[in-house]
Write a structure and sequence with these properties.
This protein has helices at residues 35-53, 57-69, 79-91, 100-107, 112-130, 137-140, and strands at residues 2-7, 13-18. With 142 residues, the chain is mainly alpha-helical.
């Protein structure tokens, strides 16, 4: 996670969230019988990454899923980031599927420290994606 200084309202410097490179999350596919599947999954993950950042609900779901499961060994499991994406999804204006709340609850079963990290990350990501503050109260209802 990196931030760059930009000039905000009234010329006051503020920090803008910059999403990490997708390569920070993908693995090196080992030479196995599943090598082709791993490579294909990485390609889908890279495409979903760009679409998730652009606000695609389906892509955000796919990213959260891969970060929580590893998606055939193509993605490094990262529970904090998976939870952060689930928080973004819960707070987003998108119409969600019925299973989304269950996925959110499952992926955000973290320690208090990790959940706070996920929330801080989710707030930054939400601001970058939707250009407004994340409505945290939506998370409190779940």
């Amino acid at each position: 996670m990196t931030a760059g200084i930009i000039t905000g309202m009234a010329g006051v410097p503020s920090f803008a969230y910059e999403f990490p490179k997708v390569e920070d999350f993908t693995t090196i596919c080992m030479v196995t019988s599943n090598d082709e599947l791993c490579d294909a999954t990485k390609l889908h993950f890279k495409s979903d990454w760009q679409n998730a950042i652009a606000g695609s609900y389906e892509a955000q779901r796919n990213i959260a899923f891969c970060l929580s499961t590893g998606c055939d060994g193509a993605v490094t499991v990262n529970p904090v980031d998976a939870c952060a994406w689930r928080m973004v999804i819960q707070a987003s204006p998108a119409k969600r599927q019925d299973t989304e709340l269950q996925s959110y609850r499952q992926d955000c079963k973290l320690s208090n420290i990790d959940r706070r990290k996920a929330l801080a990350l989710a707030e930054e990501m939400y601001q970058a994606i939707y250009n407004k503050q994340m409505p945290v109260e939506k998370l409190l209802r779940n």
